[in-house]
Amino acid sequence: MPLFCKQCKGRRVPIFQEKENISLWLCEKCKNFVDEKDFIVREQTDQERQEAERKLKEFEETSNFPSEKLVRRKGVN
Ligand SMILES: [Zn+2]
């Protein structure tokens, strides 16, 4: 699996592509997608980058806020 980028040796993340119904691997540094054969399919578009940033922001906001609720007392089921 193309988990690490050949160009920058960075870690890639699998991004599901709804259109193609497959997952492509994205290097966030090089901004390109490769398929499972480590073949560069295309570059990340500005729209996709913004979407990823938005999702990350959302994730950070939702994971920061309810953190107190998620903390469970020890010994209590
Ligand atoms: Zn890279």
Key descriptive features of the protein:
single chain, 77 residues, alpha+beta, 4-stranded antiparallel beta sheet, 2 helices, 25% strand, binds zinc ion
Number of E-type strands: 4
- Structural domain tally: 1
Helix content: 25-40%
Order of helices and strands: EEEEHH
Supply the number of helical segments: 2
Enumerate the spans where pLDDT stays under 50 for 5 or more consecutive residues: none
Terminal residue distance: 39 Å
How much β-strand is present in the residues?
A: 15-25%
**What is the SS-derived class?**
alpha+beta
Based on Cα principal axes, name the global outline.
elongated
Q: Can you list the strand order of the major beta sheet?
A: 1-2-3-4
Radius of gyration: 17 Å
**Which ions, cofactors or small ligands are bound in this entry?**
zinc ion
The description of the largest β-sheet is:
4 strands, antiparallel
